[in-house]
Specification:
two-stranded antiparallel sheet; single chain; about 50% helix; mainly alpha; globular; 6 helices; about 120 residues; 434 Repressor (Amino-terminal Domain)
């Protein structure tokens, strides 16, 4: 919990996938219509403006791997970042490994988050 200006407590909420892609889209100087126009291959070619708007407003299910990777390319954002906010594991990390390896990877990730000065940590 973080304290506000007048001593009130407020939770630090993880940003949503929709808010991350909306922010990246604006920073890239693109409209929703621009992005939909650039989604022209495979499964994502069927997307309409209303679908994308719903995705930005977190009103759709998690995006597919293809959508995450295509959006990363269009918006100039790391696919790893988008996978994180989509609560997904990137394709290349979906391996059959021992439990200890998975635990070690998460411990390392937590250490990085705890020591990052730009991380909104929970207290």
């Amino acid at each position: 919990m973080r304290r506000g200006n007048k001593g009130e407590s407020r939770s630090i909420k993880k940003r949503s996938f929709g808010s991350v892609i909306a922010e990246a889209r604006r920073q890239a100087g693109l409209t929703q219509k621009d992005v939909v126009g650039l989604l022209r291959s495979g499964e994502v070619a069927r997307w309409r403006l209303s679908n994308f708007s719903s995705l930005e407003h977190d009103q759709r299910y998690r995006p597919s791997d293809e959508m995450v990777e295509k959006l990363a390319e269009i918006l100039g954002v790391s696919a790893d970042v988008l996978y994180y906010y989509a609560n997904r594991i990137p394709r290349d990390l979906r391996l059959s490994v021992e439990n200890e390896v998975v635990e070690g990877a998460y411990e390392a990730f937590r250490r990085v988050l705890k020591t990052s000065p730009r991380c909104g940590r929970r207290r």
